[in-house]
Amino acid sequence: MPTALVTGASRGLGAVFAERLARDGFDLVLVARDRIGLEHTAAAVRGNGVTAEVLVADLADPTARATVEHRLADASRPVDVLVNNAGVENGNAFIQADLRDLQKQIDTNITAVMSLTHAALRGMIARANGSVINVASFAGYLSSPGNTYASTKAWVLAFTDTMAASLPGTGVSMIALCPGRMRTGKHDAPKTPSPLWLKPAAVVDQCLRDLARGRSLCTPGVVYRTVVGALEMPRRTLRGLARLAGRGRAQRRGRAGRTHARSAADRIAA
Ligand SMILES: NC(=O)c1ccc[n+]([C@@H]2O[C@H](COP(=O)([O-])OP(=O)(O)OC[C@H]3O[C@@H](n4cnc5c(N)ncnc54)[C@H](OP(=O)(O)O)[C@@H]3O)[C@@H](O)[C@H]2O)c1
């Protein structure tokens, strides 16, 4: 049985990820602070005949986070899929917000994503097998005045982009999930259907489909996909040009290397 570790699995999108992965046959490690919520998710996923381990940890706390890092780095119990889903949103304007709360937001939304990915990746690369899903947000593309949540999600997008670029050929993949507003119960969603309000189950389905297709960015929902597609266009072009330039440099280095090798051989022959 493959194993997936899902952070923020006590409710919301994380619980939906856990349920879907259990249906796909993954044993689960469920991480969050609320033990009751985690036990609830664990009971639901065990109905699929998989195991569910509950790991209570505050990811904003370095000592508690270390227990999750150790679980991810444990080669005797490999984790095949890491879902960095836990996140907090501090909606206060920057100068009114408590600095400790802002730091917790950074520790949960950024530091935990970086450190758990670091803990998981070495083993995944050694086994040439694994995937990391980083839950970002459409907010990462917006500047909402004074709100620092968006900037933490912009980091998740940039981090995944750079990491994913270094993974081809390793057997490991990484994707940033970039949803707009979701009906996870966190926000007051309108009762009537709206293309701007996404269903968590559909978001998870789309993310796993895009991961299987080898994509490094998933933007569920037609409206969000269109906007992000337009915003990403210049970056995609730039990346393509950089790849071409890199290939040209490598070819020139290869030619120079062959010329150098030939002249060295000529000298030896002489
Ligand atoms: N809902 C949306 O509209 C929306 C849109 C775009 C992106 N997102 C992102 O999607 C992800 C899930 O959102 P959601 O709507 O499901 O949110 P949610 O219902 O508030 O759930 C957040 C999850 O994160 C966990 N969590 C928060 N702080 C934690 C900490 N310090 N340590 C460990 N676990 C922690 C919570 O568990 P405990 O409280 O038990 O610790 C909970 O399980 C987040 O990253 C969010 O930023 C959400």
Topology:
Elements: E1 3-7, H1 12-23, E2 27-32, H2 35-46, E3 52-56, H3 62-73, E4 81-84, H4 99-127, E5 130-135, H5 149-165, E6 172-177, H6 200-212, E7 217-218, H7 222-269
Parallel strand pairs: 1-2, 1-4, 2-3, 4-5, 5-6, 6-7
Helix pairs in contact: 1-2, 1-6, 3-4, 4-5
Bound molecules: NADP nicotinamide-adenine-dinucleotide phosphate.
Poorly predicted regions are 261-270
Q: What is the CATH fold-level name?
A: Rossmann fold
Count up the domains.
1
- Percentage of residues in helical conformation: 40-55%
**Helical/strand content category:** alpha/beta
Q: What small molecules accompany the polymer chains? A: NADP nicotinamide-adenine-dinucleotide phosphate
At CATH's second level, what is the architecture? Answer: 3-Layer(aba) Sandwich
The strand order across the widest sheet is: 3-2-1-4-5-6-7
- What's the mean pLDDT score? 92
The level-1 CATH class: Alpha Beta
Total number of helical segments? 7
Overall radius of gyration = 22 Å
Strand content: 5-15%
According to CATH, the homologous superfamily is NAD(P)-binding Rossmann-like Domain
- Rounded to the nearest angstrom, the distance between the terminal CA atoms is 63 Å
Q: What is the number of E strands?
A: 7
The dominant shape is globular
